[in-house]
């Protein structure tokens, strides 16, 4: 058996350098972006994730808002920093960098909700565009569920405006509950039912589409799968929460669900389910934020003074830099 080797973090660390030159140019020409897109990633399409002990995930994201006219007093709220707690499913944030153009007058950071990191930037004046670039590196070493308190679990039994159950949702929840012998089996049946009922389709919903509307359409994106599963879980008496993060192969952010299952120590294990892909999240998933539904965890939100409406342009470059298998074998990107 090969002796496990220490992880190599020099590659992502080398990217986090100060930006040089004129920062007034449109940031798609930025040094950060040019460097990030030179990163090569491992081919993981055929990886058996049950055999993976550890993975190192790198991502670059750019959020650019373009305005037809000038705006002022922009207050931009970002929820893009991955979970930093080492014991969160073995996830550890190794590095994080955020840059913005124009340079903000003020930058604040604090925690909200279920331990999510919020960064708020204040920009006095924007002529035509503003851009936020994020680079981070995360290590995942385990898929062990995080334990949460009883009070946290009980709060997540309550429906929200996006996950409120109507008669149809309640009927499905009751049927699946009567077929299940345990909470874990019930959660799995709900996830399977959502996967089999829904069709992945863009342009038919938005982030404010409720679970009841989703059930009528039976189509949507990952947040719609998550909202429908949350509504069914809560209607069946299971506490559950919305997870915002990243999954290998996804163009933007990804959403899935954690169901809180009571264990024999009178605490709750947060068990992940990805109904969009009909599987359990693996070490190729990165958790950014947790909430009751999407409205708790939007990656970007904000306000400004002006008549113009900004158009969001998004880019992402992400993948695995390193995989360590249970056998001791290690793959590293070149």
Describe this structure in words.
This protein is of the alpha+beta class and 334 residues long. The chain folds into two domains: 10-143 and 298-332, Immunoglobulin-like (Sandwich), CATH 2.60.40.2250; 146-281, C8orf32 fold, CATH 3.10.620.30. Helices cover 20% and strands 37% of the residues. The protein is built from seven helices and 16 strands. The protein has helices at residues 10-15, 31-36, 150-155, 167-178, 183-197, 211-217, 222-235; strands at 52-66, 71-78, 91-101, 106-112, 116-126, 129-140, 146-148, 199-200, 219-220, 240-247, 254-262, 268-273, 285-291, 300-305, 311-325, 330-332. Strands 3-6-1-15-16 form a five-stranded antiparallel β-sheet. The chain has a five-stranded antiparallel β-sheet with strand order 7-12-11-10-13. A four-stranded antiparallel β-sheet has the order 4-5-2-14, with no helix packed on it. Helix 6 (211-217) crosses helix 7. It is globular, with a radius of gyration of 21 Å. Residues 1-28 have low confidence and may be disordered.
């Amino acid at each position: 058996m090969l002796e496990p080797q220490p992880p190599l973090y020099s590659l992502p660390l080398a990217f986090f350098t100060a930006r040089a030159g004129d920062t007034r140019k449109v940031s798609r020409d930025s040094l950060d972006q040019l460097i990030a897109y030179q990163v090569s990633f491992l081919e993981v399409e055929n990886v058996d994730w049950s055999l993976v002990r550890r993975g190192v995930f790198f991502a670059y994201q750019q959020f650019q808002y373009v305005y037809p006219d000038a705006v002022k007093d922009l207050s931009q709220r970002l929820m893009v920093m991955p979970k930093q707690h080492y014991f969160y499913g073995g996830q550890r944030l190794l590095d994080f960098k955020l840059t913005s153009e124009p340079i903000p007058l003020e930058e604040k950071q604090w925690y909200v909700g279920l331990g999510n990191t919020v960064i708020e930037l204040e920009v006095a004046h924007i002529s035509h565009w503003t851009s936020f670039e994020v680079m981070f590196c995360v290590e995942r070493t385990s898929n062990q569920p995080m334990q949460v308190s009883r009070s946290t679990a009980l709060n997540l039994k309550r429906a929200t405006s996006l996950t409120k159950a109507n008669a149809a949702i309640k009927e499905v929840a009751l049927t699946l509950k009567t077929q299940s012998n345990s909470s874990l089996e019930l959660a799995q049946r709900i996830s399977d039912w959502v996967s089999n009922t829904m069709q992945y389709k863009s342009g038919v919903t938005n982030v404010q589409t409720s679970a009841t509307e989703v059930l009528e359409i039976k189509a949507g994106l990952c947040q719609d799968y998550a909202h429908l599963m949350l509504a069914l879980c809560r209607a069946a008496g299971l506490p559950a929460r919305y997870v915002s993060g990243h999954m290998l192969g996804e163009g933007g952010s990804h959403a899935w669900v954690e169901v809180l299952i009571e264990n024999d120590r009178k605490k709750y294990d947060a068990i992940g389910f990805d109904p969009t892909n009909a599987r359990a999240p693996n070490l190729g998933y990165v958790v950014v934020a947790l909430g009751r539904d999407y409205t708790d965890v939007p990656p970007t939100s904000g306000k400004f003074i002006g008549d113009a409406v900004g158009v969001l342009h998004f880019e992402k470059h992400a993948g695995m830099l390193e995989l360590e298998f249970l056998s001791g074998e290690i793959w590293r990107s070149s």
